[in-house]
Write a structure and sequence with these properties.
mainly alpha; globular; 8 helices; single chain
Length: 204
């Protein structure tokens, strides 16, 4: 649900940035999500779902290399989890899963000065990056879905949906690779140093 939300947020955010309006967002754990837009630049909004979730995943990967950065980004993750309840299909299993996920995030703040939190953030980042690649393959290669972001993009701007899917997948992998490199370069402190810093930043 969270990664589906990231996908739809990508459509919505770029639509607003390019002068469009978001009419509605809906999320379904079984069927996926859909964002109804009016206006905006479709050449940007259509790939923004796949690439947006990959970019968010890359940011999470970077933050997952540092405890304090993970603390900051986990607040946003908790908010995104709760937003899925607002836009998502609210069956009891979805509600329970989302609430447990938020509770798990909060609980990780209290494990060894939130050291556990960085691994959760890193996991969600990798999952988000790789899920977008799987989503592209599922839509365009395995299930051969008739209508997808890539097929609509191909109809409007030429090329084939599979070609655009491959291009977007390569970009997604590059986002993840850059996230790993930036995370390693930006946060080179040892666990001990990070724990000491975490004691003085939003301490638990």
């Amino acid at each position: 649900m969270l990664v589906i939300a990231f996908h739809e947020f990508g459509h919505a955010f770029t639509a607003i940035l390019t002068g469009g309006k978001v009419k509605s967002i809906s999320l379904d754990p079984n069927e996926g999500g859909v964002t109804h837009l009016s206006g905006g630049i479709s050449a940007i909004t259509l790939p923004a779902g796949y690439l947006g979730s990959s970019l968010i995943g890359a940011v999470l990967i970077v933050c997952g290399f540092n405890i304090n950065a993970s603390k900051i980004v986990s607040i946003g993750l908790g908010a995104c989890f709760l937003l899925t309840l607002w836009w998502g299909k609210r069956d009891w299993l979805t509600v329970l899963t989302v609430l447990l996920a938020v509770a798990f995030l909060v609980g990780c703040w209290f494990i060894n000065h939130a050291e556990a939190l960085r691994f959760v953030v890193l996991f969600i980042g990798v999952m988000s990056s790789l899920y977008s690649i799987w989503d592209i393959g599922d839509d365009l290669i395995f299930r051969k879905v008739n209508s997808s972001d890539a097929s609509v993009f191909a109809e409007r701007y030429g090329g084939s949906s599979r070609c655009w899917g491959v291009i977007w997948s390569v970009i997604s992998v590059c986002f993840m690779a850059v996230g790993i490199v930036v995370g390693l370069a930006a946060f080179s402190q040892s666990f001990e140093q990070q724990r000491e810093d975490a004691k003085h930043f939003l301490p638990t």
